[in-house]
Amino acid sequence: MRVVITYLALIVIGLITIESAHAGSCAGKTKALGVSRVVALDTSLGQRFGRMQYKEDNLLADREVVLTFDDGPLPRYTKPILKALDDHCAKATFFYVGKMAKAYPDMIKKVSASGHTIAGHTYSHPLNLKRRSTAKAKYEIERGFMTLEAVLGHSIAPFFRFPGLSDSKPLMSYLRQRGIGMFSVDVVSNDSYTRNPERLARQTLRKLDKLGRGILLFHDIKASTARALPNILSELKRKGYKIVHITGRTTYKPLVTDEKKLSQAIAKIPNKKWISYKLLTSAPIPMPEKREAPPINELATTSGDADPVAKTEGDDEKFTAKGKKSEGSSLPTVQKTASLTTDSTDSKLEPAKPEITARVKKPDQSPAKVKGWSKKSSTSSIFKPMEFPEVE
Ligand SMILES: [Zn+2]
Predict the structure, then answer these.
(1) Superfamily (CATH H level) for 2-374
(2) 317 CA from centroid of ligand 1 (Å)
(3) Backbone angles phi, psi at 215, to 5 degrees
(4) Could you tell me the residue ranges of all domains in the chain?
(5) Ligand 1 centre and the CA of 330: distance in Å?
(6) pTM for the full model?
């Protein structure tokens, strides 16, 4: 009873994520990865995820993986990537560029209809977003989201990834005000620079093995990823990794409905400094519950459409991740049990009432380097009372 009360209290204060798992099997696909669990993330505090830059996320347990694809859609490569995911009953998150969505509306609709999560990655993918004026950068972010929703005809997850992972405190403060979650990465595939699919698979899996879990970054505008993904997914299965599908507990909420009024709407939002999460809440923010569940029952199959082959070459982002194993994270483990209703974006998934095991883990302490810029790791975690340096 105490556990249930605690859990409900955390929901009330908006700090906990609600997840659901799905029972069943991926019909006839015994070698498919499936989805181990679905996490409906609460981003109302502008939570950040990805140990390369941020320390406060404890999204994943050991051997868990979140698949992410940036910069698309681009039918030539997005289609085979979708097929590879479908073959494995796996779900991913696609951080999409507004311009690309406008160019290939059928493709992004197909990705969304397949049950994957669509998230924002600006309108035109400026790599130096933080060097633009703050007003212009905000405009890029908001316009990107608005364009994706306009093309899709429905709301999308309030998740954002900075192009080139080039964040800044003013922009992070803004996103927090907007209730938009920020995603960095744990494992960078470097698919922008690795053309050989075998090498891409090998190096990506090697990095993942070192960390033991993580958010993987690919680009669905890269041939190497399209070719390597079937092998990567098969290897993930063989190595015992499990796929976590992240969805939004809420959706992105446009400032205005008319894009022409967007700049004015942005200007009306006061600039706030980056403040400590500790000041936002006195309660620790737990990681999402971990629970065991068999793979999803069925996947939404997609068939190829007649999208034209594009020749767009995405701008590349090369990263050098220096993550450490998380095994040093010996942390207090909190056990909780409760029943939840299923909160899924995929109606084909079978609801379940899983046992919930919540674990609060110590964040990874690893530093991170991104080519072209460097960033000091923040010094604390939102999972414990935490502190962030004030904005300079
Ligand atoms: Zn990008």
Answers:
(1) Glycoside hydrolase/deacetylase (3.20.20.370)
(2) 7
(3) -85, 120
(4) 2-374
(5) 34
(6) 0.70
